[in-house]
Amino acid sequence: MSFLTTPPFGRRATPHPLLIVGLTAAGTLPMHIFVPALPAAAKDFGASPGTIQLTISLYLVGVAVGQLLYGPLSDRFGRRPVVLGGFVLFVASTCFAMLAFSIDQLIAARVLQSLGGCSGLVLGRAMVRDRATPENATRQLGLLTMTMSIAPALAPAIGGFVAGWFGWRAIFALLGLLGLTVLVIAALTLPETHKTRGQAGGRGARHLIGSYGKLLRLPAFRAYAVAGACLTTSIYAFLSASPFLFIDLLGRPAEEVGLYYVLLVGAASLGGFVASRLAGRLAVPKATRLAAHLALAGAVLILLGDRSGHLGVVVLVAPMTLFMFATGLASPNVIAGATGADPALIGAASGLYGFMQMAYGALCTVVVSQFHTDSALPVALTLLASALLAHAALSYGARAAAK
């Protein structure tokens, strides 16, 4: 059993930053890497577009639900054994997906893959927060945000290249190789960072529910979790509507639109870098409020551009770049704030925060999809409402802290 708590090689007290990046990438890269291969896989299985799309949508559902489980489990049993178990599931399910003989098998494999891969997504944040002060955590999480924001942008390009040259099953071969590499390195070197494991409560479902109930009763967690979800995943509203806005409404070619996404991802990465540089100089509450101000300004500019009748590429991309910068700036700060609400429940806080993020992002996507207009109004209003809600949550947290 000592292997589950102590790595055979390496005596680092904290995980290597590159290993944290690898753990997180295994959960985020598979979200979109399969998108370019959907038509080919649907053709092979004789599946409808709606059915093959389940391999993407159910992956997102699995990531959301899985985050609720891993956090409290790691608080109880430790980060190392839980993340190793998650990656065993990830590698096994990825092999299952590569060898799937039917669409049902592929969908089932993708769900299991999401449940395994999200272990690194949750526990990467938790392990950073375990051994760092809020300021240091913000700095490290900022660099992680900057690095990991690149993965979703590169994923479709990687998937398209691999599927085009080697077939869609090769995508899962690549993911399996990535997962196996990370698993081996983690098994050999990943230290246990949660030294007070087992002190947050009992076992089973009652412990899980109790952990989340305790967190939801903490004003600091509620404030940062709500503000974080509003500032970081409300961008899903824009991402889901952007093909219509750029291609159909503004008449831009698809290959040009890809450059806009690179710019937006770059803005989020820059925001994460700035957050890491401001850590220790600007307190977490002030940095988060600054991000909320920038997001509000971006949303208002999009709304004004649309309502004035001057909507164009620059009028849409420039404010959205500002909003994406705010997203990158907010992300490490809200994670540090939310996971620091109760030092005994860092894993649970990371999981519950991640679930709230994904749920809010899905809600924004659904809301925008209900409105088919020839304008950016639905996106602008969704972003504006999200920024205002983030401001309200942060104000509530500040008042609660002052009491």
Structural summary, described in words:
The structure is a single chain. The protein has 403 residues and is an all-alpha fold. It has two domains: 2-135 and 150-199, MFS general substrate transporter like domains (Growth Hormone, Chain: A, Up-down Bundle); 210-402, MFS general substrate transporter like domains (Growth Hormone, Chain: A). 81% of the residues lie in helices and 0% in strands. The protein is built from 18 helices and no strands. It has helices spanning 2-5, 17-33, 38-45, 49-52, 54-77, 79-98, 103-130, 134-148, 150-166, 169-189, 204-216, 219-232, 235-249, 254-278, 284-307, 313-339, 346-369, 377-402. Helix 2 runs antiparallel to helix 7 (103-130). The radius of gyration is 21 Å and the shape is globular. The protein starts with a helix and ends with a helix.
Descriptive terms for the model:
single chain; 403 residues; mainly alpha; Growth Hormone, Chain: A; 0% strand; globular
In helices, the fraction of residues equals: over 70%
- Give the rounded overall mean pLDDT: 83
Give the oligomeric state. single chain
Treating each run of at least 4 consecutive H or I residues as one helix, how many helices?
A: 18
The ordered string of helix (H) and strand (E) elements is HHHHHHHHHHHHHHHHHH
In total, the number of strands is 0
